[in-house]
Design a protein that fits this description.
Elements (H helix, E strand, L loop, with lengths): L12 E5 L6 H12 L2 E4 L6 H8 L6 H20 L4 E4 L5 H8 L5 E6 L3 H9 L10 H7 L9 E4 L5 H12 L4 H4 L6
Parallel strand pairs: 1-3, 1-4, 2-3, 4-5
Helix pairs in contact: 1-7, 3-4
């Protein structure tokens, strides 16, 4: 598959979302590589003040997140306008954050990585990242799982990473049921 893989005539951006430690970056990078799509690690566009705040163990608030989300949405919009499919790793914890990202254009979809709390905590303790394990509970408290009316796929790793990746690829390369349904039927 190549970067030109599209749903009908429309490019696709898959946002691999979930709390810190869910495997967003790993899954998104692998997905982009397998599909030949552009990739953006959302953490790479956090302003230095956000990184400093999280590194100090202070959760971000909405004021901190809006410029970051808008920068990601702009990157996504540029890809979609060029007809280029892409993958983004971004927490997208709340529906209003996903709504902000959806403003990038049609073709934005979400793959939600759901991982049990104990596994998330284990992963966060074992990695070197600016997000400390002490912020896990705050992320889980902020998380609003995607609703049935959102174009989202819930993914668990119960069948392994490769099976999860295959499920995301299959879903990402099919036309969205939400894109063709009238808004009141989504």
């Amino acid at each position: 598959m190549t970067g030109e893989r599209q749903q009908g005539d429309q490019a696709t951006v898959v946002v691999v979302m979930g709390v810190s430690g869910s495997g967003k970056t790993t899954m998104a990078r692998e997905l982009a590589q397998k599909l030949g799509w552009a990739f953006l690690e959302g953490d790479s566009v956090h302003p230095p003040a956000n990184v400093a705040k999280m590194s100090a163990g202070t959760p971000l608030n909405d004021e901190d997140r809006w410029p970051w989300l808008q920068a990601i949405a702009e990157w996504m919009s540029q890809r979609l306008q060029r007809g280029e499919s892409a993958v983004v790793a971004c927490s997208a914890l709340r529906r209003i954050y996903r709504d902000c990202l959806r403003q990038a254009g049609a073709g934005v979809r979400f793959a939600y990585l759901h991982v049990p709390h104990d596994e998330l905590a284990r992963r966060m303790r074992s990695r070197n990242h600016f997000m400390p394990p002490s912020l896990l509970d705050s992320q889980l408290a902020t998380l609003e799982e995607p609703g049935a009316d959102e174009d989202a796929l819930r993914v668990t790793e119960e069948h392994g990473v490769e099976a999860s990746l295959a499920a995301i690829i299959d879903w990402a390369c099919r036309p969205s049921a939400h894109a063709s349904a009238p808004a009141d039927e989504r």
